[in-house]
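Lab channel / #folding
Pinned by the channel admin:
"Please post every new chain as: sequence first, then the structure tokens as a reply. Keep commentary short and put observations after the output so the thread stays searchable."

First post following the new format, from NK:
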Amino acid sequence: MSHQYSSLPASLSPAPDKTAPSPAGFTALRRTVAVACTLACLALLASAQAARADWPERTVKLVVTFPPGSANDAAARIFADALSRRWGKPVVIENKVGAEGTIGAATFAAAKDDHSLLYTVAGTVSVAPLLVDKLPYDSDRDLVPIAATTEIVLTLALNAQLPARGIDDLIGTLKAHPAEYAWASGPSLPRYVFAAFLKRRDLQMTYVVYRDAAQPQADLGEGRIQFLLTSLTASSSPVQAGKARFIAVANPTRSAALPDLPTVRELGYPELEISGLAGVFGGKDMGELLRKRIATDVAEVCRDPEVRRKLESSGHIVLDGSAAQLTTAIERQRASVAEISKLIDIRNAR
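Reply from TO:
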């Protein structure tokens, strides 16, 4: 049997819901909600911006991974002084030295304080993980690049009595007198780069280790070592005394302090090029808004003519104050050191 159902009588049909909004009402409601959400987001953003505008609320600590009196320490103090004037709060230096910058980096990472910043070179992030088995911090997570500041001028210097006037002559001299001459360098990258240079060309020199950073330039002048690759400030004394000579700068660009001295790349030896960038890092919990604000202030300091004069006269190349420049330097160093480590043992480079 088939059953057919007819529609309900009008008297039994459900009455229309007069409280439900019409399509036009739904549109108006959506617009109201959207406007409310937008206003709430803008309020939150304004609140965050206002909070950052109040930063710093107290003294800012700048952890520096270099010893007092060193070239990078001097640069850090110049930036600390300029930023203190901009921020209206003291910026104090805390030197934490040793272990390729890892002691200072560990101190900074453990602080977890948005009024604490780290001043160090890119190598603390790019090189240190290859030298220390168990770092007390994550170099990628805990050290966030904020702003590039300077690149220290690195010079190749020869003892004046060495029968060589340049890199070509040096190679010829070393081939003719293997293992008769000694060399030294600044820590980390300069040491690895020159050790790899010697290895590539099957050249032999004796590497001399120093505990006192001032001693190598004295020994260069007296002929106890014949070659020194280090910062301009750490090798200038014997040159000024006429006991040594500069033959090149290792940086990618010439130095304002030595405008007539060519780069190693200009001389045909790009494998000797070193970009020893320094910069400011923040902690992983520091907000992006604050990092950008600090970067903007550092960039303004980098553009200040008086600051540039001080930095350049003390053996630095001034950078642009951006996070991108510092991040790029870190990645390039990682690639460079990876190639060098295929040639030499970077934990015992000599």
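NK: Residues 114 and 286 are 6 Å apart (CA to CA).
TO: also worth noting, The domain at 60-152+275-340 is CATH 3.40.190.150 (D-Maltodextrin-Binding Protein; domain 2).
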